[in-house]
């Protein structure tokens, strides 16, 4: 079997960075098509939103256990098989009018994407060390943030020109090209396989989940990313149905919020040496200020421009916080990179899927005020988790275990 060595390490890393955004594309590229899917499939708004939630739940749950599988059986072959199967699921979606079958395919896609993502994230732990490893793992979330920037923007044009199925044709083509490149240039990165012993795997999971700094991080990541998902679930309907703009405008709105998220991640990367707790607390307080201002000013003026000003500000700070804690969690247990990466991302997505679907449907987000309320709820919950984290860090035994 082909392996990643010094001769192909750099090209394999480049391919991994190109492939990392596939999870964001699978999740977000069809967001501007939500209203069109409701009409074309003869289904409800909540059902179309559920296609995203099902993907998130499957993606999150799968990552909780696929890490131990790829740590035991390797990354490369499982990743290739998952890419091939992902192509098939997209072709099934474009050929059906059954929302129930789309539910099934989206659940399967969540599982397949989880294998791809955990495998590719583990590559940087497997083949790099020291500062270079820290640099690449920090860069991971920045690159991953490119998908929310590009995907809905591209999806808006695909919807406008070709209708909603074009989004899933795009996903199939993307996966096919990457499959060919992986076959040609990449390879296995796992230095040595670990026996699949259920008892030891359970102990590994227990060790990670019971580490307070790691567990708090998972919840904070999930609550933070809920902001982006709530926007994705709700924006197409108020932009296209309330303000009567086209799907292209939805794409531009998502592009703006995605760029903000990306820039926030880049800022946090440049401030990697600053105090961990100070950065998180300051960002959370700034988020609270923007969310309150968003709520208060809704009675004075409410337009797509006002909403997007606050969304961009909040998503910038969200990207800043997300990158800080994602980098920390990903490198917290380097001896079990697959498992820790899976739990970090998977646990975060489970939290995200629950809160985003609950708030989007309960609040019936359709204007600036309801958007502000959803953000305020999430920000308060993040603040509470940061208080728990601070209390843990103040314990003498915890201070030296927390890495910057």
From TrEMBL:
Q: Kindly list the biological process annotations in GO that this record carries.
A: xenobiotic detoxification by transmembrane export across the plasma membrane
The subcellular location is: Membrane
Name the coiled-coil region(s). Answer: none
- Span of domain Major facilitator superfamily (MFS) profile: 12-397
Q: How does it sit in the membrane?
A: Multi-pass membrane protein
Annotated SUPFAM superfamilies: MFS general substrate transporter
Top-level lineage group: Bacteria
Which Pfam families does its entry note?
MFS_1
- InterPro entries assigned: MFS (IPR011701), MFS_dom (IPR020846), MFS_trans_sf (IPR036259)
Tell whether Transmembrane is among the UniProt keywords. yes
Return the GO cellular component terms, semicolon-separated.
plasma membrane
By its UniProt entry, which PROSITE patterns does this protein fall under? MFS (PS50850)
Predominant place of localization: membrane
Any idea which UniProt keywords this protein has? Membrane, Transmembrane, Transmembrane helix, Transport
Bilayer-spanning residue ranges: 12-30, 50-70, 77-95, 101-118, 139-160, 166-185, 214-239, 245-264, 276-298, 304-325, 337-360, 372-393
Q: Which GO terms describe its molecular function?
A: sodium:proton antiporter activity
* The protein's name: Multidrug effflux MFS transporter
Q: Which organism is it from?
A: Mucilaginibacter achroorhodeus
Phylogenetic placement of the source organism:
Bacteria, Pseudomonadati, Bacteroidota, Sphingobacteriia, Sphingobacteriales
């Amino acid at each position: 079997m082909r392996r990643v060595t010094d001769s192909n390490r750099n090209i394999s890393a480049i391919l991994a960075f190109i492939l990392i955004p596939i999870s964001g594309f699978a999740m977000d590229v069809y967001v501007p098509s939500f209203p069109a899917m409701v009409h074309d499939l003869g289904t409800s708004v909540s059902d179309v939103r559920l296609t995203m939630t099902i993907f998130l739940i499957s993606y999150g749950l799968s990552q909780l256990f696929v890490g131990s599988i790829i740590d035991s059986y390797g990354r490369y072959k499982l990743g290739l098989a998952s890419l091939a199967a992902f192509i098939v699921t997209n072709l099934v979606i474009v050929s059906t009018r059954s929302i129930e079958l789309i539910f099934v395919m989206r659940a399967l896609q969540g599982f397949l994407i989880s294998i791809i993502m955990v495998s590719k994230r583990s590559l940087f732990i497997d083949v790099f060390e020291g500062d270079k490893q820290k640099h690449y793992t920090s860069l991971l979330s920045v690159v991953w943030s490119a998908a929310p920037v590009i995907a809905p923007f591209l999806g808006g044009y695909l919807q406008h020109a070709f209708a909603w199925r074009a989004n899933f044709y795009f996903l199939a083509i993307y996966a096919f090209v990457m499959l060919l490149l992986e076959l040609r240039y990449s390879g296995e990165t796992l230095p040595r396989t670990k026996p699949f012993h259920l008892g030891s795997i359970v102990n590994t999971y227990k060790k990670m989940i019971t580490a307070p700094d790691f567990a708090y991080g998972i919840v904070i990541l999930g609550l933070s990313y809920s902001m982006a998902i709530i926007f994705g679930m709700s924006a197409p309907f108020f932009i296209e149905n309330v303000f009567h703009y086209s799907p292209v405008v939805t794409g531009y709105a998502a592009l703006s919020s995605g760029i903000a998220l990306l820039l926030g991640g880049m800022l946090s990367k440049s401030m990697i040496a600053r105090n961990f707790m100070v950065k998180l607390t300051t960002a959370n307080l700034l988020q609270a200020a923007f969310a309150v201002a968003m709520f208060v000013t809704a009675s004075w003026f409410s337009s797509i421009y006002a909403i997007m000003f606050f969304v961009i500000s909040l998503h910038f700070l969200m990207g800043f916080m997300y990158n800080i804690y994602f980098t920390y969690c990903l490198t917290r247990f380097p001896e079990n990179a697959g498992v820790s990466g899976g739990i970090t991302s998977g646990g975060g997505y489970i939290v995200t899927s629950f809160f985003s679907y609950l708030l989007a449907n309960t609040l019936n987000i359709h204007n600036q005020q309801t958007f502000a309320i959803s953000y305020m709820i999430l920000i308060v919950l993040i603040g509470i988790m940061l208080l728990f984290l601070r209390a843990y860090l103040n314990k003498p035994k915890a201070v030296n275990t927390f890495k910057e």
